[in-house]
Amino acid sequence: MTATATSNTKPADRPNRPSGAARLGQWAMNNGALVGLILLCLALFIATPDFLKLDNLVNIGIQASVVAIMAFGMTFVIVTAGIDLSVGAVAALGAMVSAYSFSTLGLPGILTLFIGLLIGALAGAISGLSIAYGKLPAFIATLAMMSVARGLTLVISDGTPIPTSGSVSLLGSSIGAFPVPIIAMVIAGLLCWFVLSRTVLGRSMYAIGGNEEAARLSGLPVKRILVTVYALAGLFAGLAGMVLAGRLSSAGPQAGVGYELDAIAAVVIGGASLSGGSGRATGTLVGAILLAVIRNGLNLLNVSSFWQQVVIGLVIALAVGFDVLRRKTAR
Amino acid sequence: MPDQRTPLLTLKSVSKSFGPVKVIDDVTVDVRAGEVEVLLGENGAGKSTLIKMMSGIYQPDTGRILVDGQPVHLPDVKAAEAHGIATIHQELNLVPQLSVAENITLGRTPQRFGVVDKPRMNAVAREALERIGLDVPLAKPVGELGVARQQLVEIAKALSQDARLLILDEPTAALTGREIDALFEVVDDLKRRGVGMVFISHHLDEIPRIGDSISVLRDGQFVAQVPANTSQDNLIALMVGRDIDDQFPRKRPEEQGEPLLEVQGLSSGEAFEDVNFSVHAGEVLGIAGLVGAGRTEVLRAIFGVDPYDSGSVTLQGKALPPHDVGRSIAEGLGLVPEDRKSQGLVLDASVGDNAGLATLRSTSKFGLVDRSGQRSRAQVVTDQLAVRMAGLDQPIRDLSGGNQQKVVFARWVMADAKVLLLDEPTRGVDVGAKVEIYELINEITSLGGAVVMVSSELPEVLGMSDRVLVMSNGRVAGVLDADDATEDSVMALAVSEVTSAVTASEPSTKSAGTPS
Amino acid sequence: MNTITQHLNSRRDFLALTTATVVGVALTGCNRGERPDRITLAVSTQTNPFFVQLINGAETEAEAQDIELNVQDASDDAARQADQIATAITQDVDVVIVNPTDSDAVSVSVEALNEAGIPAIAVDRDATSGELASFVASDNVAGGTQAARTLAEALGKKGEVIVIQGVPGSSASRDRGKGFTDGIKEFPDITIAAQQTANFDRAEGLDVATNLMQAHPEAVGIFCENDEMALGAVEALGARAGKEVFVVGFDGTVEGVQAVADGSMLATIAQQPEELGKQAVLEAIKLIRGDQAAPEVSVDVVTVTEENVGDYQ
Q: From the CA of A201, how many Å to the nearest CA of chain B?
């Protein structure tokens, strides 16, 4: 095809380009979480010098890790305009099956590590299948999976915690000075970033979340991708569950309750839109760390338990408010 | 009744900028009682900004707004409504689940002690409907009415709020010919009652039917006010700023090439039946027909979007498996869908991402995106197609309709498509950009490709096609050579199966329309 | 007693199971000619080992006495518990033993039982109104005080301590916290440096203990309002647990007792859940036989330390 340099072009096309100030505002809006995190850290440092101690920062990293890993998986889902309410329960199930296969079935520790990941991916894939092929709304399909996974966790555990294998416990400990949960979080984050920005799968997720029909008409196998997306979210949840269990050296039947909401909050705080098509691994990481910093700071300042829930609720409301505002300014 | 001399509404030397971009530059427009003022201009000329100023959504940076000759300030929609200014937007402001009466009285539902006063609500609604002579059941959910009637309900709603100036933003875009006639009757009636109107339409032929005068805008500037009976050629020249010598610059091939796409006996449930045709290299096959004749469905089935019951699709001698878009693309087929925004583009994504969507997988290695390759190819193709943009990273949302459509074309050029299926390729595209898209079609066919073009604009089908296939009620009613095709002969075929389906129910009528 | 974080999902977990049980019981009830003595035991949740042991104690006793015991699980959902008690009224059981999900919410059900003439026994948690034939519970306040004394002795009656609280506002958290605070007042050289919640959850206990030790590095004792959080705190302390910093838990769960045995926890205040279940059933049997039940039955809490841990393993 050769150039279509036509003589009858319009003299000046005027795309609605935002002004410099608007762009800066847009940047601040898109990186609101990072700005908020920095301000919060400064405020906490002024309030209590303990905050910026290396020990404490490492602690925050460890404490953010489980929700962050889960949230990286959730990022894939939210980019495709979906939602996964089951990740907390799937994390518990993955960890529980792993611990059960070690403690009761006597399988070797390293194998039980993969079993936990596999269970997570499997549960996610089932959600994905029922969404892509069964046409269930993601909210419903994953709500069902949440209940099923939590129920199975209780059935397997008989309501009591089960000790995990050494390999899983390693996930919760430190190698030398390096806490493994942080290493796991960094690896999961790099994987999330890589998938989203470099792979066909990741770019397809943005296309599907932005306009599923356009993606389909461009030849993307939308259903297969959706199954993969939920399987990935499940896999990340399985890893998060095992880091959680590893930190406690035991898989609990009530582990990870409500974590899905923290994970969703982290993704949204990180700048993703629940209507799909946007979301970044770095943003999600910032979101997860922000949540951990808030909890840590409230502990350090010995804020009453009653007020902690108020503060965390307000932060989530603020984050979703940002999402709404951002979409408003984008249109 | 206001003095006929004093305009109902005047925008006097208004300007408006968004950041550094001046979208309206010193424009003056009058709207008089009992008259229809047509706003004409290409997309991005500033029409919508102008009507948003009239309805209180935007405030002018400089200049004044006068109502009945008195300067006013319209800080919001409520203020405009208080002056009797109402807007009927393209996307209707109705709640589909609520009844006609509830919609008309929405926001001021008559009530007693917090309970809906149904008799009064119905009385208000009935009076409003009578004013425009619309006869619909008051209790019917608005969503069950056709688009045309919904629009009239919205007009009735505006009138029941004592609107004396109606802004009609492309009211005919979604209507059929007969519905347009009905709407225009209402408009004429409202004119007689002294309602002033602002009318926006892309259909130049509609303007002399109801307009009184035309204000032409170009690039945010006022070009001219001309009488409504100005010739179409002159109007286009005013809008575009230069003469367009040939609206349909089709270059027909000297001789027929090899058949590229062959469709045989394609049938799918109620949608279409026994569709046969072939398209040759270098050829444009137009598909005409009424809305609902099954044209879009046939394109979608060929492309593999939807499954079909029987028949076959062959591309360059190779049979295409049904319901497999990926294979269709791999074999050299491309589809430019009917609705650019909801089917064609990922609006939040960049120009580059949108252009590269169909080649994302085929160019990848080990599941990794070929980022530099995709980018350089997108740059080359968008340059070729003269897509006007700030760069590949610009969000496609910010481009004009014509340029957005060119990006969809660019996608298939990148994918090296041999046969393009176009569904209403110039819908919502400016006159100038339309011609560019036609030239693109010429390019594709001159390089040995083929094009199947579904269009509801008869002049376009007749002007750009080499052969015209007419569909009627899911069947091929006939195929005409471009030289023989006229609007009348196409329309006669388009309604043939519709009437026969009503008058005769024998299966023998099936064969009546199939091409020889 | 041992409350569990209230949460979204567990409410549905046992729905199918519960429905099946109700239907099953209703059917067998209809088939019998002569009615045996029947007791319904409505528990708050089975997701916590404590209540599982309570049920075990009740079931063992019921079996020994040849009484039909029907166990219902509300999954910490007050509304579901109300439904289950309503079902028991329809079945016209002889006695209902209820372990309330919530002391206020259960009152309506207790009043309904009063009206139907079915005696109600509360176990572990009280009902705020309505007439109870008997209330069987461990003494949480006394347990808190015992914990304070044990911790104080180990610390040499001086130093800073941290309190990790349960679900804010729950009665268990209130009572244990009150008992502990009162108890610690006897030792003027011991100060409570911080009080923060970890919602009775082990993972949260780990994080909160880590954070509080960061803010109060000189703290030498941690009182946790249940064993789950105490085990989390032990994780947080690592090698320092039991050597530099002493942790006292509450409940005497299997893992808690194990931690006392291996020295990572100083003590746990053991409730005797099986005993709670057993005592409740014994009171119920008294009522069935037409005897008077004891209005309040206090089941002892036991401080499990290194010295007596052998008896509880």
A: 7
**Is A210's Cβ below 8 Å from some Cβ in B?**
yes
Q: Distance (Å, rounded) from C-alpha A47 to C-alpha A299?
A: 12
Q: How far apart are CA B149 and CA B161, in angstroms?
A: 18
Q: Which CATH number is associated with domain C140-271+305-311?
A: 3.40.50.2300
Chains C, B in contact, 3 or more Cβ pairs below 8 Å? no
C2-138+273-299 and C140-271+305-311: identical CATH topology: yes
* Mean pLDDT over each residue of chain B, to the nearest integer: 88
Complex prediction ipTM: 0.81
List, in sequence order, the alpha helices (H) in B275-345. Answer: 295-303, 325-331
Distance from the Cα of A10 to chain B's closest Cα (Å) equals 7
In sequence order, what are the residues at sequence separation of 6 or more whose Cβ sits closer than 8 angstroms to the Cβ of residue B221?
A: B25, B26, B27, B46
Alpha-carbon distance of B398 to B401, in angstroms, equals 9
Fold match between domain B9-244 and domain B258-502? yes
* B4: confidence class by pLDDT, cuts 50, 70, 90: low
What secondary structure does DSSP assign to B345-378, as a single string? --TTSBHHHHHTGGGTTTT-BTTB--HHHHHHHH
Among candidates B429, B390, B423, which has minimal Cα distance to B406? B429
Q: Do A296 and C211 touch (CB under 8 A)?
A: yes
- The pLDDT tens digits for C98-132 are 999 877 788 889 999 999 999 999 998 888 888 99
User: Which whole number is the average pLDDT over C261-284?
Assistant: 93
Shortest alpha-carbon distance between residue C36 and chain A (Å): 30
CATH 3.40.50.300 holds for B258-502: yes
Q: Quick one: closest CA in A to B327, which residue?
A: A219
d(CA B119, CA B508): 54
Q: Which chains, if any, share at least 3 CB pairs under 8 A with chain C?
A: A
Min Cα–Cα distance to chain B from A107, Å = 34
Please indicate whether, in this complex, the C-beta atoms of B384 and A1 are within 8 angstroms of each other. yes
- Domain edges within chain B: 9-244, 258-502
**pTM over cut 0.90:** no
Give C2-138+273-299's CATH code, choosing from 3.50.50.60, 3.30.750.24, 3.90.550.10, 3.40.50.2300.
Answer: 3.40.50.2300
Right CATH number for A51-330 from 3.30.70, 3.40.50, 1.10.287, 1.10.3470?
Answer: 1.10.3470
- Do β-strands B196-200 and B36-40 pair in parallel, antiparallel, or remain unpaired? parallel
CATH class of B9-244: alpha beta
Task: Show which subunits contact A, needing at least 3 CB pairs below 8 angstroms.
Answer: B, C
Structural domain boundaries of chain C?
2-138+273-299, 140-271+305-311
Q: Pick from C7, C46, C231: which is nearest to A159 by CB?
A: C46
| C-beta atoms of A207 and B346 within 8 A | yes
